[in-house]
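Go through this fold for my students:
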Amino acid sequence: MKKIVLLSLVFGMAGCATTANFFDIHPTPVSNSGYWTGQFDRLVGTLILESDGTGVICQDHLGTARVMSV
């Protein structure tokens, strides 16, 4: 059991390390650009996706709004 937990931790941390160069990531053009909105339990989110692959997501959870670039 300890080996499984250790391996899970190692693979989980390796996944985090692969995107360490965030500024080297470039957007990919998409065909499904536009306004997208959805709801999960008490979380509401709206995504504005541009055709060049960039955009903004706004999430509201219990009155706390967060805006992030994508």
Q: What stands out?
A: The first strand starts at residue 34 and ends at 40. Residues 2-69 form one domain. The longest helix spans residues 2-17. The chain has a mean pLDDT of 83.
